[in-house]
Design goal:
This protein is 20% helix and 32% strand. It has 196 residues and is α/β, with parallel strands linked by helices. InterPro entries: DHFR-like_dom_sf, RibDG_C. This is Bacterial bifunctional deaminase-reductase C-terminal domain-containing protein.
Length: 196
């Protein structure tokens, strides 16, 4: 079974977007380099960022998101982003009316059900959980193995927090990866498992 990784771009003060969901300059690093990250022609990063991000993306089998992220992206028009095979949506509601039942999106109720479904679909590949409320729920539930952050040099001041509404302490190991790209610092932390 593959590891579960929480991932997102984040401001230095810990936000993944403003209250209105606008990421502002958090993604500047994704379009300011000279190395194409994917086939879209839009995402161009520094060589250091490419060498860090591309191998990770190639290992991701499933992404878990909340219903809010699904809704504001219009469900990526039924095509999972970044070339991944499946998206698991944590929601108390059914798929939107008229949604293509053959699209590789799975609607489940609760974080444990989401991780179980995602691991079933991903096999030995990585299960990625979007940061924010759903990622925070997964961290609080003890199912996150690693936290990845693409830290942009911006202070948003307020907004949607990287760890959502997590209210208790969670320890990380020392950074397993620190990569300096252009307009971004890539960090990876393993989540420290607390003894029972």
């Amino acid at each position: 079974m593959g590891k579960v990784v929480m991932n997102a771009s984040v401001s230095v003060d810990g936000f993944i977007a403003a209250e209105n969901d606008d990421p502002g300059p958090l993604f500047e690093w994704l379009v300011s380099g000279d190395v194409s990250l994917d086939d879209s022609g839009v995402l161009n990063v520094s060589q250091a960022s490419y060498d860090h991000i591309r191998p990770y993306w190639d290992q991701v089998g499933v992404t878990i998101v909340g219903r809010h992220a699904f809704d504001i992206t219009d469900g990526w028009d039924g095509k999972p982003p970044s070339g991944i095979a499946h998206v698991v949506v944590v929601t108390h509601r059914q798929a939107p009316e008229g949604w293509d039942p053959d699209a590789p999106f799975h609607f489940v109720d609760g974080i444990h059900a989401a991780v179980t479904k995602a691991q079933e679909l991903a096999g030995d590949r990585i299960v990625e959980i979007a940061a924010g409320d759903v990622g925070g729920q997964a961290l609080a539930a003890g199912v996150v193995d690693e936290v990845r952050m693409d830290v942009a040099p911006v202070v948003l001041g307020s907004g949607k927090r990287y760890f959502g509404s997590v209210a208790s302490p969670h320890l990380m190991e020392d950074p397993a990866v620190v990569v300096r790209g252009e307009r971004v610092l890539h960090l990876c932390y393993r989540v420290r498992r607390m003894p029972i």
